[in-house]
Amino acid sequence: MENKFKIFNSLHREVETIIPNEDGKIAMYTCGPTVYHFAHIGNLRSYIMEDVLVKSLRFVGYDVKRVMNITDVGHLSSDADTGEDKMVKGAKREHKTVMEIAKFYTDAFFADCKDLNIADPDVVEPATNCIPEFIHMVEALLEKGYAYQAGGNVYFDTSKLDDYYVFSSATEKEQLQVGVRDDVAEDTNKKNKSDFVLWFTKSKFEDQALKWDSPWGVGYPGWHIECSCISMKHLGEYMDIHCGGIDNMFPHHTNEIAQSEAYLGHKWCNYWFHVHHLNDQSGKMSKSKGDFLTVSLLKEKGYNPLVYRMFCLQSHYRKPLMFSYDVLDNMTSAYEKLVKKIAEIKEEGTVDEAAYKEYRGKFEECLCNDVNTSTAITVIYDLLKADMSGATKLKLIDEFDQVLSLDLLKAAKELGEGKNVDAELESYINEKIAERKAAKKAKDFATADAIREELLTKGIAIKDTREGTTWELV
Ligand code: AMP
Ligand code: ZN
User: Fold this and answer.
1) Ligand 1 centroid to residue 46 C-alpha, Å
2) Does domain 21-280 have CATH number 3.40.50.2300?
3) Which of the chain's ends, N or C, has fewer CB atoms near its CB within 10 Å?
4) Omega before 121 cis (within 30°)?
C-alpha cells in the first residue's frame, strides 16, 4: 500500500514517512504502566495519544499489531538502578503482597483506559510471565561479551557499543559522557557510568518479594530487559514503532536499544514515538510526587473523562501540556457545544460521495501529518458548516470518531432522546441550585437536602464540586 503516514522519529529527530518492514503491516510496542499505584492523567495522556496513533494507522489502512507490557517487577525508584523496587514500595504502603498490588492497579489502569475510550492492545503481557525469556537474553548477552557479572549482579557493558546514546545530539552526548547524575549514588560495581543492570541478585535483596532462580543466583530482572524480551516474544526481531512518554527516552529506551541490538546483531526498531509531558503548576506530573490527578478524581468532580481526552487531542503530542481546571471547564463547554451541533444534524438525504471523499481526505491528511489531532478536530467543525446532506455529515463524523473516540454520535443521540434540556428547565434547575446554596450558607441543611431530593424526583442529579454545583440528567 502507499505509505504516506508521517511521524516525528526521535531516533533521527525528524518527521519521517513510516515505511513498515512488511507492506501494509505495523508491528508496534508500547511501554506499559508500572502497576504500584494508580495511573495519573499524565501517564494517561501518553496512552491516549498512543491510542490515537494506532487508530489513525488503522484508519488509513494498516494492519497494526500492538503489544504492551505490564511492569510488575524490576522498576526501581531511581532509573539509575538504585533504590527500592517500586512494586515493593507499593506493597509496603498498602500492607499487601506485591501480586495483590499488581492485580489491583492493573485492573484500575484498564478501567481508566475504558473510561477514556483507549482500546486494549492486542497483546498485554506482565513482566513476571516472562522470566525464562529474560534469563535467556541475559545469558546470550554474557556469551556475546556485551555483559559482565559484578558484585552479584549482571550488567550491560555500554562501552562495547559504538553509539550508546542513540537519541542524543553530539553536545548532549558529551554532557552525558562526562556528566555525573547529581541525584544518584554511584554503583561501584559498574565498569562505566552508563552501564545498567540486566539481572539483580544483590541490590536491596532482602526487601524483594518476587525472586527467581537464575544461573547467577536467586534474583530478579532489570526493568529494561522486560520490554526487549516481551516485544520480541510477540513481534519478532523487527519492529516498526515503539512508543512511550518522553521521559522513557533515557535511560529506558536507550537501554532497550542497546541490549536488543547487541542480542540480535541487527537494527531492531525503526521509529520511536514519544509523547511529551502533562505538567501541573509544580512541573511534570509524576506518581512519586504523591499529589497527582487520576481519572476517578476527575469523575468525582463531575468531569466527563472524554472531555479530558478531547483536551489532550486539542494539543499536539510533541508539546508539553499544562493542566488546569479552568481549561477543563472550557473544554467541557466546547465538547457540549460540539455535541449539540451534531445533535442538530437532520438524518436526511443520501451520502454525497464527492463531499464524503473530500472531507475524509482532509481528516486523513491531518492524521498523516504527524498525528495532528487538533486540526483533525477542526475538520469536524468545518464539515458542520459545509453544504452537504445530513447523511454525509453523520457518516463522516461516525468514521472520524473511530479515531478520536469522543463518543460524539452517542452523546448527540442521548441529547436527542430527551436527555437534553430546554431553556425553561435549565433556568428552573439553576434557580433551585441557587436556593440550595443559600440554604446551605444559612446552615439549613434540611432544606438543602429537600431541594436535592426534589430535583432527583425530576430526574436531575446534582453534585457539589470544588468549582460549584453541577448537575446531570439521570
Ligand atoms: P510508568 O507507569 O511510570 O511506567 O509510566 C507509564 C507511561 O507514562 C510511560 O510511557 C511514561 O513515559 C509516561 N508518563 C509519565 N509521566 C508522564 C507525564 N507527566 N505526562 C505524560 N506521560 C507521562
Ligand atoms: Zn519499556
Assistant:
1) 7
2) no
3) C
4) no
222 lines ligand 1 (CB under 6 A): no
CB of 286 closer than 6 angstroms to any ligand 1 atom: yes
CA distance 335 to 331: 6
Residue 231 CA, ligand 2 centroid: distance in Å: 9
- Residues surrounding ion ligand 2 at CB below 5 Å: 31, 227
Q: Which three cell numbers stand for residue 173?
A: 552526548
| Type of residue found at 222 | G
State the architecture of 344-417 in CATH terms. Up-down Bundle (1.20)
Taking CA atoms, 162 is separated from 79, 111, 292, in Å, by 23, 43, 40
d(CA 80, CA 193): 9
Q: Which of 37, 246, 247 should be mutated for ligand 1, with most atoms under 8 A from CB?
A: 247
Q: What is the pLDDT along the chain (474 residues), one digit of tens a residue?
A: 999 999 999 999 999 999 999 999 999 999 999 998 899 999 999 999 999 999 999 999 999 999 999 998 867 776 666 677 787 888 888 888 888 888 999 999 999 999 999 999 999 999 999 999 999 999 999 999 999 999 889 999 999 998 898 998 766 766 666 544 444 557 788 999 899 999 988 755 566 668 899 999 888 898 899 999 999 999 999 999 999 999 999 999 999 999 999 999 999 999 999 999 999 888 888 877 767 899 999 999 999 999 999 999 999 999 999 999 999 999 999 999 999 999 999 989 999 999 999 999 999 999 999 999 999 999 999 999 999 999 999 999 999 999 999 999 999 998 877 655 565 677 788 889 999 999 988 999 999 999 999 999 888 889 887 768 888 877
Establish whether residue 247 lines the binding site of ligand 1, counting it when its CB lies within 6 angstroms of any ligand atom. Answer: yes
Q: Residue holding cell 512488511?
A: 22
Annotated domain spans of the chain = 21-280, 344-417, 423-473
What global pTM score does this model have?
A: 0.86
Between the CA of 277 and the centroid of ligand 1 the distance, in Å, is: 8
**CA–CA dist 30, 229 (Å, integer):** 13
CA 299 / ligand 2 centre spacing (Å): 29
